[in-house]
Structure formats: C-alpha cells, structure tokens
Amino acid sequence: MIERTLVLLKPDAVQRALVGEVLSRFERTGFKIIGLKMCYAAKETAGQHYADDEQWLRSVGEKTKKSYEAKGVQVSEDPLEIGKRIRSQLMDFLMLSPIVAVCVEGHGVISKVRTMVGATAPSSAMPGTIRGDFAFDSYGLADKSGRPIQNLIHASDSRESAEREIKIWFKDEELHPYQRVDEALLYRKVE
Ligand code: GDP
Ligand code: MG
To answer: Which architecture does CATH list for 1-40+97-191?
Structure first.
C-alpha cells in the first residue's frame, strides 16, 4: 500500500522557521519526499484547496457555534454562513506569506502523517505531534481573533483527498520518484 499524501507547511510554519524540523520528521520515519516547493498560494489555488464543500462548511460552523455556546454565548448565525466565513479566513491565511508544498510517499503514509501532525487544535494536540510540540493555538483564541486556527501544517485526510490535493499543488513532472538507500531494509521481504 504505497501511497502519496499532500502536506502544506502553512505561513506560520515558514515564518517560524520550522520547515526543516517538520520535513526531517517525515524523512526520519522512512517516508520519501517526492515533491517539494516554496510558493505563494494564488487565490484560485487556495479556493480549490479549501473546497466550497457544504458538508465541511457546515461541520466547521457547527463546531464554532458549539464552542461559543459552551462559553454561554448564544449564536444565531447559520452554521453554513459561519463555515463560509472561516473558509474565507483560511484562504486569506494561506495567502499571507510563502508556504511550502510537499508530496510525501510511503507505505500507509496518509494516516501515519495525520497521526504525526496531531489534532486540529494545537491546544489539544498531543505532545510528540507536530502541532502539539510547536503550537498552542485554540478554537477560542482563533475565533476571538477573527482568524482560522494557526496549526502550522495541512495533511490530506484520505486517499480521495490526497489524490485531489496533490493535483492542485503539483504537476506530474514536479513529482520525482527515486530510490532511498534504506528502502531495501524498510521494505525487506524474506523469501
Ligand atoms: P485539519 O484536517 O486537522 O487541518 O482540520 P480541518 O480540515 O477540519 O480544517 C482545516 C483548517 O481549518 C484547520 O487546519 C484549521 O486551521 C481551520 N479550522 C478548522 N476548524 C476550525 C474552526 O472551528 N474554527 C477556526 N477558527 N478554524 C478552524
Ligand atoms: Mg483537513
């Protein structure tokens, strides 16, 4: 099950000089970086990445509404509208400064990278994960500040999203298959 996944080092990761640290975590796991570029996200690309998907927009809106209600603040706005506002904040954040797009390949890479990345809100991400080790942002702080959660990194959450997202950020010729010297051991088979 050799898979590919898309990772974005968001503007906060680049501005905080965490690019090498994060890439090295993937490399030392045994995964292979086959695509890597620094770029400014164009508005169109940011819009494709954070797709205008009603189900996702509603779920983000519901989550925000609940976090306010837990603090005793009643919100009358439709979750879909809240979701749309967060999507627009996410797009603005992605375009704030350069990002690094990465395509990583390996056995079971999609779920393993998600585990390494940690929970969406760094405030509750486990120590040892990228978000848990290098950030502390929370839904509360983000919502109060009118911005999306700054959690350093995006990683595809399924085979379908990986396939969709890799196409958004990389042309075929920008992905470079090659052999790692330790692959003979990592994928060793006993006859
Ligand atoms: P991820 O897969 O863990 O990155 O999380 P999602 O795909 O659900 O959300 C995408 C991004 O939107 C997250 O990485 C956060 O930066 C941001 N985000 C998600 N949910 C919320 C929310 O309820 N409020 C705010 N302010 N930002 C959110
Ligand atoms: Mg996601």
So the answer is: 2-Layer Sandwich (3.30)
**Which ligand 1 atom sits nearest the alpha carbon of residue 90?**
12
Burial class (CB in 10 A: 0-12, 13-18, 19+), 110: buried
User: Distance (Å, rounded) from C-alpha 176 to C-alpha 12?
Assistant: 27
- To 5 degrees, how large is the angle CA 7–CA 32–CA 1? 90
Residues classed as catalytic? 154
pLDDT in tens, 101-116: 999 999 999 999 999 9
CA distance 11 to 93: 7
Domains of the chain by residue range: 1-40+97-191, 42-96
* Predicted TM-score (pTM) of this structure: 0.94
Q: Which of 49, 87, 120 to mutate to test the pocket of ligand 1 (most atoms within 8 A of CB)?
A: 120
